[in-house]
Design a protein that fits this description.
228 residues, alpha+beta, 6 strands, disordered N terminus
């Protein structure tokens, strides 16, 4: 049985915890079908400034489709990494009680990088969602490889987050295109430097963050205030 984590989105009071049958779906989807679905109903997003996620949404009347998508995504974890401590892919389920739209969300940076990204990198997109994916992909690499924890890398990451959250609501597409191209160009310059994290070690991202923090602790002296 797929391992599912249920999460209430505290940022939206219209969402609530729910359960539904996640038995094996009678619908068998293929990679091309899922990519097409992502281009129409998917979101490559960044929440609260640093939390990356992949979301797909559908009406709760389409339970069979939701089950099929869940099965397909969780099976990406079958690509087991040798000597890996990376946890299997988890899916967060939420429902908007006002619209009855169910969202399936993958928000673990490890799952996104080690399981989801290889699948997406071998697929082709033809809509404007491909631009979202390119930006989101760069943000994911900045985060998983540790550049995010350096000033320049974090700046690029936040630039991407800002664009992803605004680009569909801004009419000046010409200016947006220039901004996107500049972000991608500057990010490529960052990637030319050795990454702070060794992702080939196949250890959880949190472990890499902890190691980095310990190694650089002396570079961040604390200010001590003495009162008389």
């Amino acid at each position: 049985m797929e391992r599912i984590i249920y999460l209430k989105d505290t940022m939206n009071t219209k969402r609530e915890i729910f359960t539904y049958n996640t038995t094996e779906s009678q619908i068998i989807i293929n990679p091309n079908w899922l990519i097409g679905f992502l281009e129409g109903e998917g979101t490559f997003g960044i929440k609260t400034g640093s939390a990356l996620y992949l979301q797909v949404a559908q009406k709760n009347t389409s339970q069979e489709s939701l089950n099929a998508i869940t099965t397909f995504l969780t099976r990406l974890s079958n690509n087991v990494l040798q000597d890996s401590k990376i946890s299997p892919l988890n899916i967060v389920n939420t429902i908007n009680v006002r619209t009855n739209v169910v969202s399936l969300v993958v928000n673990s940076v490890d799952s996104l990088y080690y399981y989801v990204l290889p699948f997406l990198d071998t697929s082709k997109m033809y809509s404007r969602k491909f631009t979202d994916f390119k930006l989101w992909r760069v943000a994911l690499l900045l985060k998983i490889q540790g550049y995010y924890y350096l000033p320049e890398g974090k700046k690029r990451f936040l630039d991407i987050s800002d664009i992803l959250n605004k680009r569909y609501s801004i009419n000046t597409t010409g200016d947006i295109s220039e901004i996107i191209n500049e972000i991608l160009k500057r990010s490529q310059t960052i990637f030319e430097k050795d990454p702070p994290f060794d992702v080939k070690s196949n250890i959880p991202h949190s472990d890499n963050v902890r190691k980095f923090s310990i190694q650089n602790r002396s570079d961040n002296p604390k200010v001590v205030y003495i009162y008389y």
